[in-house]
Amino acid sequence: MTEAEIAPLACGRDAALVWDRAEAGLPLDAHGRSCPHCSAAYAEARRLDAAVHRMAATPVPVPEQTLEAVLGRVLEAARNTRPPEPLRLDSPLGPNRLARTAATAVLRALVDAMDGVRARSCRIEQPGPDPAIDVALTVAARFGLDLVSATARVRQTVVAMGEQALGLPLRRVDIEVVDLWEA
Amino acid sequence: MGGVTLHVADAALAALAAAAARGVPGVAAARAVPAAELVRVTIAVRLGDNCRDVAEAVQRAVTHTLAELAGRTALVEVTVAEVVLR
After folding, report:
1. Which residue among A7, A57, B67, B84 has its CA within the 20 to 30 Å range from the CA of B46?
2. Looking at the predicted structure, is the pLDDT value of residue B67 above 70?
3. Which domains are seen in chain A, by residue range?
4. Does the structure's ipTM exceed the value 0.85?
């Protein structure tokens, strides 16, 4: 017998069925009412159920110091979580900006539109003084796909369409296949 | 007759700038916040339009509109906050 299995009662009844009736507040059937094993299991389950509900309804007092400490940590974490710096877009009238989340969404959508590959993550860096960007993509690919040609296709599409959609030259595109899925 | 003073409130400038931005092809939504000599314009661009080109076109349109209608020379900074995928 495994741990998940429940031994039947001495009368042969499935104990779990008796417990379910007790938990649902249903009365025992004719056999149960006359059976000492079923009656005992039913009564025990009712007692346990009542105790659990009583404990669940009891409010848990949180010490004020603990509450303040937890809130302080949450607020500190929120203050330190800054949105990532936007990407620079060159313009003769002064620099404009492109949110990284918007740029990554575009590149991910380009990959997702391709047959046999799905984007998992996308990271964009703009390291130099020029607006060129470096892209690091992780992708999942369909099982059986030629990964070399598929990643070459992804790179080619991202370079061409990414530059066209974002207006930023792509200097480097790194692609890592992190998962395969069966069609 | 004495001189005439024209003052355009920030709210009016913001409305003018946002309207000018929304008139640029490729812009799906726009809002503007004037801050001293700078007007920050935040836009959403439709997928397929070049973000850099749309941002620059918005810069030109807003600069021109503020000068033309409000007599204000302002530096315009555009942020593409979102690309509308569908």
Report:
1. B67
2. yes
3. 15-57 (no CATH), 87-181 (3.30.70.1350)
4. yes
Distance of alpha carbon B64 from alpha carbon B37, whole angstroms: 15
Strand ranges inside B5-74, DSSP E:
27-35, 38-46
Dig out the tokens for A19 from the structure.
Answer: 């417990």
- Give contacts of B75 with chain A, Cβ < 8 Å: 94
Domain ranges of chain B: 10-84
For residue A26, the one-letter residue type is L
**Which of B48, B49, B56 has the CB atom closest to A91's CB atom?**
B56
A66-95 pLDDT, tens digit per residue, is 888 888 888 888 887 777 899 999 999 999
Contact A122, A136 (CB under 8 A): yes
User: Which class would CATH give B10-84?
Assistant: alpha beta
| B68 CB within 8 Å of a chain A CB | no
Q: Would the CA dihedral through A146, A149, A155, A157 be positive or negative?
A: negative
CB contact under 8 A, A109 and B47: yes
Statement: the pTM of the whole predicted model exceeds 0.80: no
**Which tens digit of pLDDT belongs to each residue from A118-165?**
999 999 999 988 999 999 999 999 999 999 999 999 999 999 988 999
B37 Cβ partners below 8 Å, 6+ apart? B73, B74, B75
- Residue B35 CA to residue B31 CA, distance in Å, equals 13
